Every structure is written in structure tokens, then in C-alpha cells.
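User: For a benchmark we're assembling, each entry needs the component sequences followed by a predicted structure for the full assembly. Here are entry 17's components. Please fill in the structure.
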Amino acid sequence: MTEVVPAVGAPVRVRARVRDKISRAFVVIGPGLIAAAAGNDAGGIATYASAGAEFGYRTLWVMSLTAIALVIVQEMCARIGAYTGEGLVSLIREQFPLRVGAFAVVCLIVANVGIVISEFAGIGAAFELFGVSRYITVPISAVAIWAIVVFGSYRYVERVLLVLALVFITYPIAMVLGHPDWEKVVSQSLLPHLLADKEFLFLVVALIGTTITPYMQLYQAAAVADRGIGPDDYPDERVDSITGSILAMFISFSIIIATAAAIGGTGPLSSAKEAAQALEPVAGAAAEALFGIGLLGASALAAVVVPLATAYGVAEAAGTERSVSRTFAEAPLFLGLFTGQVIIGASVALAPGNLIDLLLNLQVLNGLVTPVILTFVIILANRRSLLGDAVNGPVLRVVSALVVVVISVLAATVFAQNVLGLG
Amino acid sequence: MPRLNPLSAPSRLRERRHQRSRRLLASRAVADTLVSVAGLIGRPVRNPSAAEIGTIKDVVARWDGGEYPPVTGLVVRIGRRLAFVPGTQIETLAHREVVLQSARLDLADFQRREGEVLLVEDVIDHQLVDVDGVRVIRAADLYVAKVGAMYRLVGVDVSMGTLLRRLGPTRWRTRPTPERVIDWAAIQPFGRPGSPIRLREGNRALHRLRPSELADLLEELGRRERQELLAALEPETAADALEEMDAEELESLLRESGEEQAAALLAVMEPDEAVDALRDLEEDEREQLLAMMPEDKAAELRRLLGYGERTAGGLMTSYLLIAERAETVADVRARLVDDADHQADLPGVLIVDNHGRLVDDISLFELLVADPDTSLNDLGGEPFPVTVMPEAEIDDVVDRFVDERGSSLVVVDADDRPIGRILADDLVDALSPQSRVHVRRRLT
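Assistant: Structure for entry 17:
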């Protein structure tokens, strides 16, 4: 009894794991609802509402095709997560030459910074509905979000934000109560018709960009991998990812339809106030407040989760420390990326100009990056050495390649028209 | 979140790593002989008369269990073919080229052999464990050097600078930047996708790690690497580490491990920790795992699962040291020696009567100062132990703790027989805001 062995069972762990924070935000409620909630961030709401306001039901067929693409893409990401047990950024580091992988990571960061900016713009727009200037609220919320994550009492806050964001589940009710022209809804959803209009094309790319986001692909693969879902559990997970995508699309459709029924054809959306009118059938005079609450919850939630998840993924791929309980000296890449995204996000959201226009432009930015990241996803899902028998079959190979080509052509056209000034 | 104390173990280990690396690079001579593996890609392979035979595609090493794995050969691209050049034929391996010993070569097509890995394809850019630094790293570059007659893998570079060097122009790649080299002796490597190396036992330094440090490593690794590390650990060591893991991380680890392995790990874990983990699983998953365990173990876990999570029964540790009144202090001390593994769960020894009913709780202090020949019966007496029933809610347990100011409470059944003990740290775990909240289970 002379030897004193240190007590090994004593709990000594104090590190807060980002992964916990990220997964708890979402995993807690199940991926279906999450996917639906994530499609409804600031950028999504603005884009769908804008589509409904400007073009009525005429973008619905684009959404039908986007829905198919979304189901295909999310299923591939879930499969990659289940069969490799790894996130996309790590796989990109391991499976591609370093330079190619670095290009993908840069694209991903650009797209996600775009989303972070949208979320801060969403926070600003939400508070403006209550009459508070964004020049006050955006800097304060940026500091608050940064502090909450770094000093770590985020778990309680996120639940509140999540509940706030669920306000947007009222859109389907608003859609029904708004008495849309159902015949038109159905025909416009099923019959493709080309509108060779610059504005229309711009909005189409924004719709694709906000629906098939690189961030969602990242999230889907990581969530499946982090939950320990393996090949054996994959059949269930497959159903889950598909129903999740469909639910997300249902909400997106209902936002467009509800907005179209309320203010369709009145021209481009110019403010959150206008977008809020779509909820009047549900909330009457309180529509603006309801919309504001939902927008605030969804935006603030994503403003925390997206920069955190991006920094985590990149730090994991780089092989450096990725814990919020580290100091800057210990985890410069992780904390630097997180902080940088919050600062850039808040700063750009303060730039003078219309917030709705800013939001739409950022969704187009996402639409430009989407085909790049999709290409990586498809290459991974086509790689037999990685997925074995779960590799994409011949039909999926063709269809997924087609999806990328179509999105690329659309994105390239919009890029040429709006950035290069052609056409 | 509280920050790690600057003097905590990981920092000390990190310091040790730096010392090792400094030792490795102590002499300029050593630094100059390091050849960057990433820099070798695409470099020419020449015969003694300086004619180019082909270019380097990869470097083959064998994980032989030693500190510095030998380079067993090169994968060389000759025309469209990939050929294997055995390590014995290498005359010099330098930054810019490889020169072979003889002009005559039997070039065999490359085929992987047991225990061999391709350094570029399987190791660079993949995860490794830096055991001294207690962290998961990704190899930005590897360095080989001539040790005795052989080229061996001696170090791994994890710096961002090296990554940038590889991103830059090709001519930068040969320039080694060994300022952040980690001695390979401190590394736990992994196999390659599809065929993990099971032969090699874990890095010996792994045994020095605390369970909580191993838990950190397991949580940070990718799935394949995590499973390999788990396989390299002794079952008891692995179980200790699992007990320290975050509840959700443990849940996904058990799910990904496959039922047989998960059941085996749970059976070795402390019962209360195993029960916590089982509670996190779905009911059918839980039943499958219990069915695969030894019957008595499964029965014990089922009994503990029967108690509510936030009740005394759910909080308690079922590990007890129970003695009869007639036993002497010396007898009990001897039994304590055998139970050294469980010392964290043993603040005292329980005395029971002939019917197994609790008589007293003797603290280790009392045992220490008592005469070895004293019978336990004589040690018993006031103050009598504070007990709770397993059904008691956590609030009641806390009240009893506050009233009694003890370090533990004994849990007894309806017949006053001891069935477990609630330690103060169990209660701290349960009350701290980081404790498990099973929102997900309630919603699904």
C-alpha cells in the first residue's frame, strides 16, 4: 500500500468541443427539421420572398428541378459521411493534390463568408423591422456572438434562437390562408418555361445558390460522420436525408407561394417589411413582428454556426488545434478564421445600400461557388477506392454531372452578365 | 468554458516534444541530411552513369514496430509503368534526385506488401497522433534520413509554412523547412484506408497518457484512425479512456464500432459509466449490446438501467467494498490492495451484518490509523453513515450531502442492504451545466 497511483478516474476534462456546439445546435432536433430550418436563413427568406414578389409563381419550376438536385446532392453527402466517417474538408485534403484541395477550401471559405454576411444583414434587417438601426445592432450582435462562442455559454442561447427560427414553420399555413391560385401553382411547378430575362436568370442562380449551398453539403456529411452512422445504419440515414431535403423544399415553396399570393407581381422586393406581408394571413397586424422574430432567430443561429463550422472544418483539414477553449497563440488558424468571418460578416453588412439587394447578391455568390464544391462532392462519390460498393451508380453519375453542368452554365452566364457586364 | 491551466499535463508534454525535436535538430548536420518526402515527388531516379530511369512517384516504408520505420523502396514511374525499386538498391537519396547502386535493375511492378505504406499516398496529408504532444496532427511533410546503412523515416513536419511551401512553385518543395519537425519516435501512425495495420502495437508512449488525454485523441481522430487507435490499446486502457469521453462522442464511437466490439468495451467499463453510455443509445441498440455481454454483466447493467437517471440509483457507483463485522483491519487492507484499480470509487469500506444489512461505513482514514488486529466491529460506531434509497431524487441527494458534509452517501435498498455509493464527484458531474441532457432522446 506504499505506492500512490494517481487517481485516473477523476474527471479532468474541461475542453469545450466545437463539434458539440455545432452538432447540438442541429442534431438535437433531428436532421429533417434542421434542413428545413437551415434553408430558411436570411439569404433563403430574402431570395424566396423576392422570387415570389417579382415573378409570382413563375420561378416554381426552377424550384422543382432544384429540389431534385438537392435530394441527389444531400444523399451523396450523407453517403460519403456514412461510408468514410469523415467530413468533406478532411476528405478534400486527403483525396486531392494539395493545390487542388486548397482551391476548394478557398472557394468554400468565400461561399461561407458570403453566408455569414447574409446572416448579419438578416440580423440588421430584423431589428430594423422593430425600428432599431442596423448600425447599432449589427456591431453589438457581432461582439455578442463572438463572445458567446469564445467564452462558451452558447448552448442555452442556441436553443432560444432555434425556437425563434421555427417561426418560419408558419409559412405553409400562411400559404394556405393566403388563397393562392392553386391551378397556377401546380402548372408553374411542373411546366418548365424559359424566361430569357436577365433579372429572372439572376434570381434563378440566387435560388440555386441559397438552396444547394456548399455549407449544407458540408453540414450533411459532417453530421452523419459525427453521429457514428456507418454503412449498416445508412439505409435509415438515406431516408432521413431525402425526407429532410423534401421538407426543406416544401418550406421554400411555401415561402415563394405565400409571398406571391400576398404581393406577387409588385416588382422586386425592396425591404423586409414587404416580405413580412406574406405572413399577414396568419398573424394579421403582428405579421411584421412575427417575421422579424423568425428572421432574427434564423440569422443569429446561422451567424454562429456557419463561421464556427467553417473554421472547424478548415482547422481539421489543416491538422491544427480546433477548440474554442484554446488561446489565439494555441489555435491561430481556428480562432483567426472564426473571428475573421464574424468581423467581415458584420462589416460588410454595414455597408450602405439596400439589405435585400445585398442578400440576393450574396446568394448569387454562393450559386457561383456551388458547382465548384459540387464537382468535388461528385468526384468523391464516384471514387470506388473511397466508398467501395456505395459508389455512385451509372445513372447517378450522369444525372449528377448534368446537375453540375447546368448550374455551371447558369452561373457562368450570370457572372458574365452582371460582373463582366456582357449581354 | 474554463481554460486549461498553463501548467497542465498537455503543456508539459508539449514542452517535452519541443525538447525532443530540438535534440533531433541539435546539429546542423542532422538538419541537412533530412530529405523532404513531399519534395521528392517527380524527382529523377538515375543509374550510376547519371542516366534518368524514371521519376519518383512514392516512397514505401514498413511499419515494423521500431521507432524509425525503414524505407523499403521507391515507387518509380517509368514511362507509363509503375515499378518498385527496393531500398537496398538506393545508393543516395537526396533532395533533388535518387541515384541507384547498379546500372542493372530488375524492375518489378509495384505491389503492396504486408505492413507497408506509401508515404505520399497514405501518410502525408493524413492524420497521425503526436503522442508526446497529446494531439492529433496532419502530416504536412515527412523527412527521411540515412540512419546506419538504411534510409529511415525520422520526422514529421506539421507547420503551416510547410503547407504553403508545397502550395508554391515546385522548386520550393525541395527546400526542407524542418523548424517544426516532430521526432517520429513520438508518433502513432496508422495504416491505409481499407487495410489498417493491426500488427503494430501502439506507440509505447501511449501507455503514459492519462485516460482523459486518450479520450481527447479518440474524439479528434477520424473514424478509421480512431478505430485503429482503439485496437492498439489494451481493453482496460481503452475502457478507461471511453469513460472520460464526451457523452455524444462516446455514443457515436459505440455506434460506429460494431456491436461486438461495443459490447466488449462496455463490459469492461465501470458499470455506472457503461450505464450512462447505454442510456444514450436507442432501445433496440441497447438491447442488442446487452444481449452480447456476459450474462451477469448484462444483468447488473440492466438493474442499474432500471433506476431513473436523475435518482440516487442512477447516480451511484455500484462498486463497493463490503466487509463482515468479524474481519480485521489487516484483512480489509489486504483486500484494498487488490482493489487498487478502483481506488477512485472507494472512499471507505462498508460493514454489514449477517443479513447483509449496512452497519457502518469505515473511512480509509479510520482504517489507516487503526491497529491492524482490530476487528471492524470495534471500529464501528457514531457517526453512522448517511444513506439514501435508490429512488431518491437528485434534489434529495443534494440535500443529504449538504446536511452531512460528507464525501459520499451510501445507497441502500428497502432491506437496508448497501447497493451503491454516490460520490461527490458523481454529483458534481450531474449538476454541472455540461452534464448530459437527453433532449434528442425525448424528441425522437
